[in-house]
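Posting this for the archive.
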Amino acid sequence: MSKRALKKLKRFERIRKKDKERKVEDRGYSQDIFSETEYYFEDGLRKVYPYYFTFTTHAKERWFNKSLIEVFSKEFIAMNSENYRRHIERGKILVNGQKVKADLLLKNGDEICHKIHRHENPVIGSKIEIIIDTDDVLVINKPSSIPCHPCGKYRHNSIVFILGKEYGYANLRNIYRLDRLTSGVLILGKSVEATKRLEDQIRNREVLKEYVSRVVGKFPDGIVKVDEPLACMRHNLTLWRVQKGGKESQTSFERISYNGTSSVVRCTPHTGRTHQIRVHLQYLGYPIVNDPFYNSEAWGPSRGKGGIMERDEKDVVSAILQEHNVGQWVKGDNPLYKEKFGGMTNIGSTETGHSLSNEKSPEHQNVTGAENCELTKDIESGEFEPKTKKLKLSEENRFDKDQLSIDIDCEECQNTYKNPEPKDLILYLHAYKYEGPGWSYKASAPYWAADDWKN
């Protein structure tokens, strides 16, 4: 065997070994991981003390023959190019476990690691409501603002971590995912068999999914069907649009009520594309009232109605990125950083997010006449508070300065940040009911779905 072939074989075996290790970890999260940091509660929000973490991923095909600094600068929006270069020089970014130069060209099989001082975004500090708890599944009414699984600026502030750390549910498996800002029915598998069975039912379209949303204006009468393909505009922003040649997507809509300015609409997705309901409502010209992506002026005067792009795609992405720039959340200099290190080091982050935010890491996840309807009855009866079982959290901890770690190279440590406002923590989209062969789970209707509710 030639040296080149032997080198390729060793690289393949190394990747296979890593994949096996991750599959073991995918079965659940250990107490060691849960113990990396702790929560504290402040102003009604659940917050996480910063901690050290190493992101790990393998080079994607689109990265081949591109320099390490080019990939980080273009693919990840946590820091600017200068700061990434500094991290490479200091050995915080490694390739195949080795310190390398910024101009290294990436190739197939390369493993990239980035050690950071990880800060997480706050989420709503409410309790998680349990709809049903069986030997096979745990079904919850997911609060808005909390992602289902670790991603981006959320890890310990994700559903699976909170349920594991504070409720004692280990080895939960995501069967499908709701957007971070979406609330409602979320089913988590407790066993491989139950997870596979439900995944197969969803894949075979045996599951009826019913959502409710509040949209701008008076939605048309009758059932409105949308059959428009969706394509991703920007991978690291998760921004989608209607586009020919995209992924097949179908959704049905029906107005439930109208309060004079906005409508409550029943949404039935027949496929499971990312942001499908949100993009199809934008396409119809009735975007969700408080949708930060698809009811934005960034799309132009018509806000993306009819799938028409009134601005260049790059300009749309740039405008939405700017709207979500982390700089707008900066409150001022962090006195604790100055107290420890004597001043700022002029390390500046450019936009929200972090390096390798959607990539594999050691905890990589495998990877979704209406007057007579049940929803209307729930709303009219005023039954907004779920009747389901609620678990008690441990005593809510207050901020403890002694538990706060501060890193000299961490740009986020240098600043204090404003708390997110209510509008930043909720989207008027709610997974109301999931129903499959022999089972049906329903969450309580959200407060904003009441007929007479006003924004």
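The radius of gyration is 23 Å. The chain has a mean pLDDT of 85.
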